[in-house]
Amino acid sequence: MQPLAMTARIAILLLAGGEGRRMGGRDKGLLPLRGQALFRHGLARLAPQGGWLAISANRHPHDYAAAGYPVLADAACWQGMGPLAGVATVAAQLPDDIAWLQLLPCDAPFLPPDLVARQLAVLQADAQLAACYPQTARGPQPVCSLWRREALAAVPPYLARGGRSLRGLLQAVSAQPVWFDDEAAFANLNDSAALDAAG
Fold first, then answer.
1. 4 pLDDT band (50/70/90 cuts)?
2. What angle do CA 189, 190, 192 make, to 5 degrees?
3. Alpha-carbon distance 71 to 17, whole Å?
4. For 80, left (φ over 0), alpha (ψ -120 to 50), or beta?
5. Is residue 164 within 8 Å of residue 120, measured between CB atoms?
6. Once rounded to an integer, what is the mean pLDDT over residues 134-153?
7. Confidence of residue 6 (pLDDT cuts 50, 70, 90)
8. Which residues are CB-neighbours of 133 under 8 A, at least 6 positions away?
9. Residue 120's closest CA among 129, 111, 107, 112?
10. Beta bridge partners of 179
11. Angle CA 16–130–14, to nearest 5
12. Alpha helices, DSSP H, located in the chain
């Protein structure tokens, strides 16, 4: 657990701006899991790990706003460019005292309680690193990455060059994996079968 003064400088960005293709076009963050919307499970786990939180969503903003956090649609210049459009939009609006941005996919309800703290320790130990991301036996988890604020300046030019992949951007900057043994904690419920199995 990081000190409260450090927690206050961490922003959490819930990414809920996708088109839900694997869910038949439904807004997957709002689908029910164990009695509440899927996105609220991830929020409950990550909100205590940061001091400022926003939701990137391009549909049903009022439903997401009911959680009590700002909801931001992708800026017009980045619409249709995937999750990095949400990152670029929010990066331009972060409060002045924020030093790090933790990404949170709306379909990952079981993330570990030390996700931010373990990644933050890596970034604090090496000032040259732009970001870090969880790595499990299933592979890298780029949508759960933690970014140094100043490194977010790389996002708009990457989008302008046609880049869309978070994994690709992490490969283009100085980023380091952080090993997590519990691969089940990073399960993405991004299709109906996975959501049904978890319920």
1. low
2. 85
3. 10
4. left
5. no
6. 96
7. confident
8. 119, 140, 141, 142, 144, 145, 146, 170, 175, 176, 177, 178
9. 129
10. 135
11. 15
12. 4-7, 38-46, 61-65, 83-91, 115-125, 155-160, 166-172, 192-198
User: Measured between alpha carbons, how far is 42 from 46 in angstroms, rounded to an integer?
Assistant: 6
The length of the chain, given as a count of residues? 199
Q: Could you give the angle at the alpha carbon of 119 between the alpha carbons of 64 and 99, nearest 5°? A: 65
| 81 vs 19: CA distance, rounded Å | 11
pLDDT band for position 55 (cuts 50, 70, 90): very high
Average pLDDT taken over every residue of the chain? 91
CB 180 within 8 A of CB 136: yes
Between β-strands 139-140 and 100-105, what pairing exists: parallel, antiparallel or unpaired? Answer: unpaired
What are the pLDDT digits (tens) for 106-120?
Answer: 999 999 999 999 999
Q: Which two tokens stand for residue 33?
A: 């899991």
